[in-house]
Amino acid sequence: MDTARFIARLIKEIQKTVGPDKAISALSGGVDSSACTMLAARALGPRLKSIFIDDGLMRQDEPAEVKGIFTKLGVKVDIVDARREFFAALKGKLDPEEKRKAFRNAFYTVLGREVKKSGARFLVQGTIKPDIIETKGGVKTQHNILEQIGIDPQKGYGFKVIEPIRELYKPGVREVARALGLPARISERMPFPGPGLSCRVVGEVTPERVALVRTATRIVEEELAVLKPFQAFAVLMNDHGTGIHQGRRKFGNIIIVRSVESRDAMTAEPSPLSWDVLRNVTQRILKEIPTVTRVAYEVTPKPPATIEYI
Ligand code: XMP
Known about the structure:
Elements: H1 3-18, E1 23-26, H2 31-44, E2 48-54, H3 62-72, E3 77-81, H4 83-90, H5 96-118, E4 122-124, H6 129-136, H7 153-157, E5 160-162, H8 170-179, H9 184-187, H10 207-224, E6 231-245, E7 248-261, E8 269-270, H11 275-288, E9 292-297
Parallel strand pairs: 1-2, 1-4, 2-3, 4-5, 7-9
Antiparallel strand pairs: 6-7, 7-8
Helix pairs in contact: 1-2, 2-8, 4-5, 10-11
The structure holds xanthosine-5'-monophosphate (XMP).
């Protein structure tokens, strides 16, 4: 594709849809929402308000880091602290689809409130083709799919949705992101799911369990960074494994390390990690998170497994 012409067309489309009104962009720092925020900022200038919802489910230091990157690019980002609201919505929920729906509802309720406050009528978001295919196909409820499955965002939350990159797959989004001048830290970034670390906590999502998986995720990302996998992360299981601590039995947490290679996330293969890498990542997790007694590496391809655990 001729990326510059494609971008010009997307910018025109946003301008035509929004007209003289205002829009809000939901920025998470992933390549999809970052590309959309840049497109909308170019299209609307000060009539765009970009917000980063701190749902408490992000990776370490993410809100401030993303805000910093966009500030350098001349895009002002407001951080909305909604951590309590998200944890309240997820409290007591164990079923993966129930958790996904609770996240989606909290996400759009917070956004709806921000849209109303700002007087905007539109929400710009980074939905891409696989999100639509997987949700419509019944694989899982992606957090950002509404109209495609019959939910009217105007009725439910008070705004219209604009999805400029809904026809693209990951490689196409990365191309657009590079052409928009986003730094490699964003354009080449590993995918991270909208519902964040809640996808990586099997069972109940509590602040404590999220904190644990956040530390494990940081270790996995750091240890595997040089290998540049398509996606690598840690998952906290909802069970305990017998271990030994100071000579006594301990039922500790179980962490699964997942690393996959893929082009567009529709199918994936486990990364062929070396024994050294597996040993290093395991030792660091055991040392830095003393409540963990077991670490395992997941070797299932997609299909039949999905990339995330919920
Ligand atoms: P699965 O787990 O379905 O994931 O194989 C495919 C890709 O999508 C990401 N993912 C999501 N992204 N909202 C998103 O924006 C979601 O609800 C969501 N669920 C999964 C996942 O990280 C992988 O890259």
